[in-house]
Amino acid sequence: MAKSLHENDYLSVTLNDKGYVRILQKTGGVVIIPMLGEKFILIEHQRGNEVLLEFPRGFLEAGESHHEGGLRELKEELNLDAVSHSILGELRTDSGLIRDNIAAVKCRLNSLDGIVLQHSEGVLAWRELTFSEVLNEVKSGGIKDNFTLASLMLLVAQKD
Q1: Cα angle vertex 74, ends 89, 43, to 5°?
Q2: Which of 40, 45, 74, 80 is most exposed by smallest CB count within 10 Å?
Q3: How far apart are the C-alpha atoms of 119 and 154, rounded to whole Å?
Q4: Radius of gyration of the CA atoms of the chain, in A
Q5: Count of H-run helices and E-run strands, the chain
Q6: Kind and range of the H or E element at 1?
Q7: CB 130: neighbour CB atoms within 10 A?
Q8: CA distance 160 to 149
Q9: Bridge partners, 29 (sequence order)
Q10: Residue 127, beta-bridge partner list
C-alpha cells in the first residue's frame, strides 16, 4: 500500500512499501513547438539555478486535451495564437520515479507581433532559430532539456 506524501492538482507523490518514491503527473503535459515559416520559437526559461533554452511547455489543466493545453500554454508563455496545430507524438518519462502523459504539439504562427513573456513563470527571453541553428544549439550543449530534445526527435522523424 502506497503512502501519500504530497498531492496537488497536477501531481501525486507516494512512497511504496519498499521505500520507493513515485511521482504521478495527474493531468499530463504538453510541449509546444511554435513555428513561424521555417523558424522555431524557443524560450530561455529559468529553472532553479539554470537558464534552459527550450520549447514552451506546461501541465494540462483538468479535462483539457493536449491540443487545448498546447494552445493555452502558447498564449500564457508568449501571448501568441496559433493558426494551425497538430500533435507530433507522445513523450513518456517513466524512470521508475516519474510517470507522465505528455504530447508534443507543433503550432504554426502568422506573426510574432504582440509577444509578451510570462516572467512570473520564469520565462526570460525568446529566440527565433532555423532548424540548423536549433541543431547547432543541441550540438554545443545549448539545448539540453529532455522534453525539447525528444520533441526535436519527433520533428526529425517526420521530415521523411
Answers
A1: 90
A2: 40
A3: 28
A4: 16
A5: 3, 11
A6: none
A7: 12
A8: 18
A9: 59, 102
A10: 42
For the entire predicted model, the pTM comes to: 0.87
- Coil, strand, or helix at residue 126? strand
On whether the CB atoms of residues 53 and 143 are closer than 8 A, the answer is yes
Q: State which amino acid sits at residue 90.
A: E
Q: Which amino acid is at 118?
A: Q
Q: How many angstroms separate the Cα of 31 from the Cα of each of 60, 92, 155? A: 10, 12, 12
Distances (CA, A) of 96 to 6, 22, 33, 102, 126: 18, 7, 27, 16, 33
pLDDT string in tens for the chain (160-residue length): 789 999 998 888 999 888 889 888 788 899 999 999 999 999 999 999 999 999 999 999 989 999 999 999 999 999 999 999 999 999 987 666 676 789 999 999 999 999 999 999 999 999 999 999 999 999 999 999 999 999 999 999 987 5
Three cell numbers at 52?
Answer: 534552459
- How many Å from the N-terminal Cα to the C-terminal Cα in the chain? 47
Question: In one letter, which amino acid is 44?
Answer: E
In whole angstroms, give the CA distance from residue 2 to residue 18: 9
- CB burial of residue 30 (10 Å; 0-12, 13-18, 19+): buried
